[in-house]
Design a protein that fits this description.
Length: 187
């Protein structure tokens, strides 16, 4: 329960910097009041190719986070990101274009929130669980945005270190995908 509360508390820190961006997206696209973080999954869960891509991307980001070699971590994250971009170019078009931007913001919200919960669960004075046990639960969840968001944040944290948090929990100048793209462009 503590991990869930910390996850939700992280959203409080994110609401100020990312809330207006999300609000503008909702207003510009006349999205319904029920529009939420699972919008992409709700729209595409019946598309097996889309779902398979999300699952593959997620696995690659988790694998990138586990790499000891910096180059290998970046290469895997780059390949996962390319899959994401290809998925967006194929399916997040026309009336679904706004879902691409929304996915980016929701991945930031949910990925960072999951990361906070994960950190508490593996901390010796928190949940005191092994990273391997917790990672299994967080990397295979039912919610695409939480699972892939967590995987993106884990890869981002592995590649850039803790600096990402100043945006994700602070100024909101970049989403986690924007930060990852910037880091991968430095290769």
């Amino acid at each position: 329960m503590v991990a869930v509360l910390l996850h939700e508390g992280a959203h409080v820190a994110q609401l100020g910097p990312y809330g207006p961006r999300l609000g503008a997206l909702i207003e510009q696209n006349a999205l319904p009041d029920s529009f939420g973080d699972d919008a992409v999954q709700e729209r595409f869960q019946s598309n097996p190719e889309f779902a398979a891509s999300v699952q593959r991307e997620t696995g690659m980001f988790i694998e990138a986070a586990a790499q000891e070699d910096d180059g290998e971590a970046k290469q895997l994250a780059f390949e996962a990101r390319e899959l994401m971009l290809g998925r967006a170019a194929r399916w997040l078009v026309g009336d679904d274009t706004c879902l691409g931007e929304a996915e980016d913001v929701w991945l930031t919200f949910e990925g960072a929130g999951q990361w906070v919960g994960y950190q508490w669960l593996i901390h010796a004075r928190g949940g005191a669980q092994t990273p391997a046990d917790v990672l299994t639960r967080f990397a295979r969840g039912h919610s695409w945005v939480q699972t892939e968001g967590f995987a993106v944040v884990m890869a981002l944290d592995r590649i850039v270190g803790p600096g990402w948090k100043s945006h994700a929990f602070g100024d909101g100048e970049q989403t986690v995908l924007e930060m990852l793209d910037a880091a991968l462009a430095e290769q």
